[in-house]
Design a protein that fits this description.
The complex is a heterotrimer of chains A (161), B (401) and C (245). Chain A has helices spanning 4-7, 9-22, 48-69, 78-85, 103-111, 150-157. Chain A is an all-alpha fold and 161 residues long. Chain B has a single domain (6-337, 345-391), classed as Up-down Bundle (Formate dehydrogenase/DMSO reductase fold). Chain B has helices at residues 14-40, 55-70, 72-78, 89-109, 117-122, 129-152, 160-183, 196-222, 229-259, 264-273, 276-297, 305-332, 359-382, 392-395; strands at residues 6-7, 341-345, 386-387. The longest helix of chain B has 31 residues, at 229-259. Chain B starts with 5 loop residues before the first strand and ends in a 6-residue tail after the last helix. With 245 residues, chain C is an alpha+beta fold. Chain C folds into two domains: 1-32; 50-243, Alpha-Beta Plaits (2-Layer Sandwich). Chain C contains seven helices and nine strands; from the N terminus they run αβαββαββαββααβαβ. Chain C has helices at residues 6-31, 65-74, 116-120, 146-150, 184-187, 194-200, 217-225; strands spanning 50-55, 90-96, 102-107, 126-128, 134-136, 157-158, 177-178, 206-210, 240-243. In chain C, β4 (126-128) and β5 (134-136) form a beta hairpin. The termini of chain C are far apart. Classes of the chains: A mainly alpha (161), B mainly alpha (401), C alpha+beta (245). At the B-C interface, α5, α6 and β2 of B face β2, α3, α4 and β6 of C. β2 (341-345) of chain B pairs antiparallel with β2 of chain C, so a sheet runs across the interface.
Chain lengths: 161, 401, 245
């Protein structure tokens, strides 16, 4: 006995595939792709199509120049990229790296390409640190922006006579 | 000496699969531990800014040193032309690769950034002995691989001697490099000694042979193949010589240090005042050196294989202890920044540093051992490594029919 | 390619003369600064060798201003875990076993000329800049901690946990090794390291400058009163010198 499902299997698979593809389309856009938040100002330091392809090259070259030769030009410096591209949204919140609202994550989450820059670099400009919600870092003991203060230092450096 | 036939083991028994399951369990635990340490950061381990290399490194360096030593049996056959050892050359070479793989796994998984292994494999600072070691370790795998090929494939058999000599020289360089990791450290009182490199070479002889003996006897017992007395006696005497040599090097190292007043602090620490480190040092000498010698050379025990097995186990235990004293003891003793002064600070200057190993570190180290053992257990099933019989009639060149 | 014509050259001569005059007027003020700012697009050279001088006679026993300043400047957060928390600079208390004399001094990365940490790093992440500052390139640090084994001054720390909200001039992250950078981000702008600035507020025990320049304050002080290096016997020629030990 052939079931309705078996008879219409091909048609069902076609419908399922179309439905799956439809989920990846942005509601607002005409093309498939990530929603990239807008940065400060009108234009990046390089044209968009150049940046899209070569941003890692610019950054890697700049980081070696800065680290080893002390060249601190601003054009391709990561700090400057972040200062324009990571901004508050209309609600006054700043997205954290890993969330789709963060400039770098918007594309990198979509493309599934892992980056480790923000394990060491701050993911937002210095003046925006403290705005928006915190990410609780993995299992560090009660973080709470604790800096080593004078009293703690004196307690630690006090040596027995 | 008759023609030697090699065959793989069946590997179908409950015992075989049981042991494989045990090793697999340890490996899973090691992978879990490594993930735990990497995810949270090293603050979950006992390693600190004072003791930067801990239990994982003890296991890793031990396995790497033992790996180069395990190749000795094959080298004695190919380089020094001792026919009696030739049948065991295949097992010896494959065991060497297995031990090295286990040691390297532990070393890599303990890195702060193991995801950057590609960088370590492609960007080299050639002034660093560590960088040279990376090349030596991977090269060892390749060269010994070729060496095994010449042993097992008749068409390239004529290159066996050249391959054997190359492998032997490479393995000496490797162990010298491993010892120099510590020998080149001018900063610490417990290191900074040229003798560390040859001492590590001698240690590799004993550790490698002890592990080889244990693996050999277990395999032949487990598969009910015959292992003749002649070959066991040869290996026994060899182990005795190597253990005695380690004791000699340790004695020379410490006696030389004792001669220099500058080193009296660290020597007093290791030999007398270091608490756990002193206990471990003397344990290494007695349990890892003197007792095995007694077991090996006692006249009434010459035919007793259990005593040889026990001696081998004690050599392995003594070896791990020796690594612990060298690696961790060397870091526990404070740096001498201001000789003649009592020093204290918030950064643990001037004090003996303490180290409490944690479970994840231990499981990672044991996982490395499990990787080596699972590799050799799989290899003897997949390849024709073991002579069908090592009975005296077959394997002893001097056997009188 | 532009071709100069005569009207352009006279304009240039005027502007050049004006600039020269302005320069002569301004230059003395610039010279009064301890160090010269480097233009952003200019690479560092070995014409300069940055060093520090610590006068331990002026270093107060109970003062930790340099340590506090460094921790604040570099964004070094503590977790109440002294054994694994990072310390770039620390106050060390010395008691002479023979005389009983006690003094304290700050110890940080000594920025050696032939640094053991640079020698042993397998990837070259630990490196010395041409102007003498020893740094860790954390992009290629694999966290093997061999440099920590090799350093005679225990200057290096390993980052044992996740970090966030780093200072943008001192990126730091879990699994890499770090140490005092001699505030290279300030030095390149022509400023003193944070510890020196903080010490200058009260006890004025720390100096920073160009060891290659015989006219710099640090060189003049070294010439007049001498200066010792910690563990000078190792022959590493550190850039940090001490007086009074």
């Amino acid at each position: 006995m052939v079931s309705w499902f078996q008879k219409n299997l091909q048609k069902l698979m076609l419908v399922a595939t179309v439905m799956l593809l439809a989920t990846s389309v942005n509601v607002n856009a005409e093309v498939v792709g990530p929603t990239v938040p807008k940065g400060k100002g009108e234009q990046c330091v390089e044209p968009t199509d150049v940046m899209r392809k070569d941003h890692m090259e610019f950054m890697k070259h700049q980081r070696d120049e800065t680290m080893h030769n002390g060249i601190r030009t601003k054009k391709h410096a990561l700090k400057e990229c972040i200062s324009c591209h990571v901004q508050e949204d209309d609600k006054g919140q700043v997205a954290r790296f890993g969330e789709d609202g963060h400039f770098c994550s918007s594309c990198h989450n979509y493309a599934g390409v892992n980056i480790d820059c923000f394990q060491c670099h701050a993911d937002r400009p210095q003046e925006l640190i403290g705005k928006g919600h915190k990410i609780k870092p993995h299992h560090t003991a009660d973080f709470k922006d604790k800096t080593v203060n004078k009293e703690m230092l004196q307690a630690l450096t006090k040596v027995s006579k | 000496m008759k023609l030697i036939r090699y065959s793989s083991i069946d590997g179908n028994s409950t015992g075989y699969w049981g042991i494989m399951a045990l090793f697999a369990g340890f490996i899973l635990a090691a992978l879990g531990s490594s993930y735990y340490m990497e995810h949270h950061g090293h603050y979950v381990t006992g390693m600190t800014n004072q003791i930067v290399w801990g239990l994982p490194h003890v296991f890793a360096v031990f396995l790497i040193v033992a790996a180069s030593g395990a190749l000795n049996i094959a080298s004695i056959a190919s380089v020094f032309n001792k026919k009696a050892y030739k049948p065991l050359a295949r097992l010896s070479a494959v065991l060497a690769i297995a031990l090295l793989a286990g040691g390297l796994m532990v070393l890599v998984l303990d890195l702060g950034r193991p995801d950057r292994l590609i960088i370590a494999a492609t960007i080299y600072n050639f002034k660093s002995i560590f960088a040279w070691n990376m090349i030596l370790y991977s090269g060892f795998m390749g060269i010994v691989g070729v060496y095994i090929w010449t042993m097992m494939d008749n068409s390239v058999g004529k290159y066996n001697r050249v391959a054997g000599i190359s492998a032997f020289v490479w393995r000496l360089l490797l162990t010298t490099g491993t010892g120099s990791i510590f020998g080149f450290l001018v900063a610490r009182q417990g290191y900074d000694a040229a003798i560390m490199a040859p001492m590590f070479v001698i240690m590799s002889f004993a550790f490698g042979l002890a592990i080889f003996l244990l693996v050999l006897m277990s395999l032949y017992n487990g598969t009910q193949r015959e292992l003749g007395d002649a070959i066991v006696l040869r290996l026994r005497k060899l182990l005795g010589v190597f253990v005695a040599a380690i004791l000699y090097f340790v004695a020379v190292f410490h006696l030389t240090n004792l001669y220099a007043t500058e080193h009296h602090g660290v020597e007093a620490f290791i030999l007398r005042d270091g608490g756990i480190f002193t206990q471990l040092f003397w344990a290494q000498v007695v349990v890892g050196g003197l007792i095995p010698l007694a077991l090996i050379y006692a006249p009434m025990l010459q035919k007793c294989r259990k005593s040889l097995g026990l001696a081998s186990v004690l050599v392995v235990v003594g070896g791990l202890i020796q690594m612990y004293v060298i690696i961790i003891g060397g870091q526990a003793y404070p740096l001498e920044l201001f000789p003649g002064m009592e020093v204290s600070s918030s950064f643990f200057d001037g004090v003996v540093n303490s180290y409490s190993p944690t479970l994840p570190e231990l499981m990672l180290g044991l996982g490395g051992v499990a990787v080596s053992l699972i590799a050799i257990t799989l290899a003897v099933k997949a390849l024709d490594l073991l002579p069908v019989s090592m009975a005296d009639a077959v394997a002893d060149p001097h056997h009188k029919d | 390619m532009k071709i100069e014509n005569s009207t352009d050259t006279s304009k240039r001569k005027f502007l050049g003369g004006a600039a020269l005059t302005a320069g002569i007027v301004i230059a003395p003020g610039v010279m009064l600064q301890t160090v010269q700012a480097k233009p952003d697009d200019q690479a560092v050279t070995n014409k300069v060798r940055w060093g520090m001088l610590i006068d331990t006679n002026k270093c107060a026993d109970d003062c930790t201003d340099c340590v506090t300043a460094c921790n604040t400047e570099q964004g070094l957060t503590g977790h109440n875990r002294p054994e694994t928390d990072v310390q770039f600079i620390r106050k060390v208390k010395l008691k002479d076993k023979n005389t009983g004399h006690v003094k304290t001094l700050p110890v940080m990365c000594q920025h050696c000329e032939t640094a053991p940490c640079v020698d042993v790093c397998p990837t070259g992440a630990s490196f010395k800049r041409k102007d003498g500052i020893v740094l860790v390139d954390k992009h290629i640090c694999i966290g093997c901690r061999y440099c920590m084994m090799a350093c005679p001054y225990k200057a290096r720390s390993f980052v044992h946990e996740d970090v966030q909200d780093q200072k943008d001039h001192n990126p730091r992250g879990k699994g890499t090794v770090e140490s005092c950078t001699m505030c290279v981000h300030k030095v390149d702008k022509g400023e003193n390291p944070a510890c020196v600035t903080a010490c200058n507020k009260e006890h004025k025990a720390m100096y920073f400058g160009d060891l290659n320049d015989a006219n710099s304050e640090i060189s003049k002080r070294l010439k007049e009163h001498g200066g010792k290096q910690i563990r000078a016997d190792l022959g590493l020629n550190p850039g940090v010198r001490y007086q009074g030990v």
